[in-house]
Specification:
single chain; about 280 residues; 9 helices; mainly alpha
Length: about 280
């Protein structure tokens, strides 16, 4: 998930948002390169969002389905889920480059969205599928998974606390209850940040689709400030997961620190080896 969030920052924020505005007359504005960026940008967002859904479902299985947990919550399953989700979402975004053409007939420069996207029934249907898959369906799936998971944790915690009242170690801290609290905090932090940061985009999508604003978008964007605010917030959501992991997960913090220290450790070994060799 952290890697997918990093890809969103690279493709959407740096190459799509910043480069097209400030890096004028670079190879990034050549139509084939521009098309590839416009393919990778939605693909990166889709993968980031659906890996969040996959993570939420994984926690649901781990906490609520003990029989399925031993088979599903494994590294092998994680690899299969990540590979399948990434491949399917890349295939889903293949039509995007075909919607864009060069600004000029005599040279490959820039990417201009075809007006067919707003009038052709096939492209209108594709736009509906694209928006429903990200973020409308994930929005409600994450909400549903977390309600079920947190409800199960609370019920189990109440039962465990009532049993501990009659045991001899009732005054000691219960590590199981502490782990469950951490699970609730992590789920709530990731899911609430996703829901809060994507809700502007979801509201804008619903408004545009239930009115005639969608067909008028080839001329002008309806409420452009509201749309840009939604885009800014949804891109910000890709930065929050890594920060949440860093705060709540000790193993993630250790791995992150190890990756930061690794170049310096490697450099120290090379210097030490070079000194001995000399």
């Amino acid at each position: 998930m952290a890697a997918a969030d990093l890809m969103v920052i690279v493709w959407n924020v740096i190459l799509h948002r910043i480069a097209t505005i400030y890096w004028i007359n670079t190879f990034l504005l050549h139509t084939p390169v521009c098309r590839f960026i416009l393919f990778m940008s939605p693909a990166a967002i889709d993968i980031s969002v659906w890996l969040t859904v996959s993570f939420t479902f994984d926690r649901l299985v781990a906490i609520c389905c003990q029989k399925l947990k031993t088979k599903y919550c494994t590294e092998k399953t994680a690899v299969v889920v990540i590979t399948t989700v990434s491949s399917l979402l890349c295939l889903k975004n293949i039509p995007w480059p075909f919607l864009y053409s060069s600004y000029y007939n005599w040279m490959q420069f820039g990417c201009m969205l075809s007006t067919n996207f707003f009038f052709d029934p096939i492209w209108i249907a594709y736009s509906w599928i694209e928006q429903l898959l990200t973020p409308v369906i994930p929005f409600f799936l994450i909400l549903l998974f977390n309600i079920v998971t947190i409800r199960r944790i609370l019920i189990a915690s109440r039962g465990r606390m009532s049993l501990r009242k009659h045991s001899s170690d009732r005054d000691e801290k219960d590590p199981e209850l502490m782990n469950r609290r951490r699970s609730i905090i992590l789920l709530f932090a990731i899911s609430s940040s996703f829901i809060l940061l994507w809700i502007t985009t979801v509201i804008y999508f619903i408004y545009v689709r239930i009115t005639t604003a969608f067909r008028r978008r080839y001329q002008s964007t309806t409420f452009p400030d509201f749309q840009e605010a939604g885009i800014m917030l949804q891109l910000l959501s890709s930065c929050t997961n890594t920060a949440i992991y860093t705060i709540t997960q000790r193993k993630f913090r250790n791995l992150l620190l190890s990756s930061i220290k690794y170049p310096f450790t490697l450099l120290g070994k090379l210097v030490k080896f070079g000194g001995k060799h000399y």
